[in-house]
Amino acid sequence: MLRIMAKRAIPKNGVDYRGKLVLAPMVRSGECPSRLLALRYGADLVWGPETVDKALIGTTRRVNPVTKTIDFTKPSASGASNPNLASGQRESVIFRLHPEQEGRRLIHQIGTANPATAVQAAKLIAGDVAGIDVNAGCPKPFSTSGGMGAALLQTPDTLCSILDALVAEVGIPFEIGISVKIRLLDTPEQTAELVRKLVATGITGLTLHCRTTPMRPRERAIRDQLRMVGDICREAGVACLMNGDVTSREEANKLVQEYGVDGAMIATAAETNPSCFRLEADGGRAPWEEIVKEYVKLAMSVENRWGNTKYLLGQMIPGKSPCYRPMNQSKTYTDLVKIMNYDEEYLAMAEAVDQRLETSIKKETRAEKKAKNKAGGADSKASTTRAPQQNTRSEGTDANKKRKYDDARLDAMPDDIARETAPGTMESNPTQLLV
């Protein structure tokens, strides 16, 4: 007798992952213009890059009248000034989304290790997205060192408590879906046990990255357990997506049929050329020149951070192209547009965006700061040598003295944001959290 599997109900404001080919969550490569371009070329849904819960907590939701985006921002000493605020006030964009172009096709991925902070952060953005996804698969130290990402695979009770809380306190009230992205465990038995626990929390979707935690993207995906995971999800009525070495819509369709899952994610291939979502019958992959030109215009239209735009261009433009090296040396959107020989419309946009983002203002580089600090330390030492009887060093002013992030001023964090709700565990490259 054929057994009919019940499908878990999709909330009113949520979206069903079944039958979907989606953009995977990628730090740096999943910011607003990248997502919009993927949707333009046929992605059914897009995941935002992992945003740590503590980074989102304390943000202010702002509607940007110029870019037509919704920006979640925090005051910052190093961010760009906001002409819509008081004169001189600067802020960093923690997350940016475009409600008209992505809105209910956007899944926000959260990095967390705590049910309370996960809920607190998710509530801030739940009204603007189609779902909240928990990152339980990232193997990078900036995630695992805080008990987040793939570290949650070793603490399944914590992971389940996070999902339970999000379903009850965010998914149900906001009527959106809650999902999770995981990796393979060491044995099929361990993976099966974990997946059974996860689907019992009330989630509507689960993505399996077909690699173990120690594996890197260059290592081939392991799909031996994929059908098993898909079967467990189907029995619980939960949609199951696969991730790992998927490069096109045709390939995704074939793998979905072969392994009996509900859909697939594309990561690396979309980072290089987002037109991989388009069927060959509809035109297939577009030339990189076309992709880059579209991306640059989208990046300028949403005023994407220049450093992020430049990073993505480094993935899209072939290294052997004559424009690759000049692009890498460019410092502003205006420089880029001139290098690429784009028209006057692009040039006018670039100049306006550079002015608003202040990218044309020369900023002190890390090398310059290091040299300045070194010179300051030398001057201090020389002064001590000349006047040994005087102690010219005051506590906390030694340029060579390293401070932990928790001892710093937290980027001029205002008094109304408590330290325990601020991003107090930032890594050595905290700009990865910025748009």
Automatic annotation (TrEMBL):
Q: Which Pfam families match?
A: Dus (PF01207)
Could you list the residue ranges that cross the membrane? none
Where in the sequence does UniProt note compositional bias of the Polar residues kind? 384-394, 426-435
- Residue span of region Disordered: 364-435
**Amino acid composition bias (Basic and acidic residues), ranges on this chain:** 395-419
Q: Which cofactor does it need?
A: FMN
| Low complexity bias locations | 374-383
Cross-referenced InterPro entries: Aldolase_TIM (IPR013785), DUS-like_FMN-bd (IPR035587), tRNA-DUS-like (IPR052582), tRNA_hU_synthase_CS (IPR018517)
List the catalytic activities from the record.
a 5,6-dihydrouridine in mRNA + NAD(+) = a uridine in mRNA + NADH + H(+); a 5,6-dihydrouridine in mRNA + NADP(+) = a uridine in mRNA + NADPH + H(+)
Q: Which residues form the DUS-like FMN-binding domain?
A: 95-319
Q: Which UniProt keywords apply?
A: Flavoprotein, FMN, mRNA processing, Oxidoreductase, tRNA processing
Query: Its biological function?
Result: Catalyzes the synthesis of dihydrouridine, a modified base found in the D-loop of most tRNAs. Specifically modifies U47 in cytoplasmic tRNAs. Catalyzes the synthesis of dihydrouridine in some mRNAs, thereby affecting their translation.
Put simply, this protein is called: DUS-like FMN-binding domain-containing protein
